[in-house]
């Protein structure tokens, strides 16, 4: 699936109200990341950049951990960036809205953190190089993304979806610019009452199920429900797999 950033932006803008109530795995991912971040910093970071702040799940934890006046926020969706800043008492002058892969970052940082965002990168290796240049000496990049088995049921049912990168692929891209201090992976299996509930869950968290922009007609939805049930229904429930990856990377 070719990533269309404009469509990604539109989906996350539409899901901004429903996101927090449905982002169960994303909340657990943030809780896993905080101890990794705390153990990776040698001292309290003066300047922190969060990439893909979204509704502020990680933002609030970073503020709680560091109480920093040096927290800067980025998000593809401008409204989300400013909202997360306002809610978490971050100066609006510390907001860098836009596509971080194309954005000029005017500062250097001691810590760059990101939760559940880097899977949307179209040029990850170039972006990792760019981020390494924006880190101070001994600076650290801590991020989570999603691995190859993420939403596997969707791919098997629709034949589409995002092409998630493996931890080995990401490690190879990172190694020229970072010393990788930690790689971890997890699997979460969410249970739903029906395939339709799976579709609704994904829509409310900004995910495009099929990876294309075609309309989901009633016939297409009915076919999806039938196929998903045939493949994955157990005792009247259906599952959905999440596959988070975690990286702690220090600038070379």
From TrEMBL:
- GO BP terms: biotin biosynthetic process; methylation
Can you state which reaction this protein catalyses? malonyl-[ACP] + S-adenosyl-L-methionine = malonyl-[ACP] methyl ester + S-adenosyl-L-homocysteine
Q: What pathway or pathways are given for this protein in its record?
A: Cofactor biosynthesis; biotin biosynthesis
Q: What's the top EC group for this one? A: transferase
- Name any one Pfam family assigned in the record: Methyltransf_11
What is this protein's function per UniProt? Converts the free carboxyl group of a malonyl-thioester to its methyl ester by transfer of a methyl group from S-adenosyl-L-methionine (SAM). It allows to synthesize pimeloyl-ACP via the fatty acid synthetic pathway.
Q: What is this protein called?
A: Malonyl-[acyl-carrier protein] O-methyltransferase
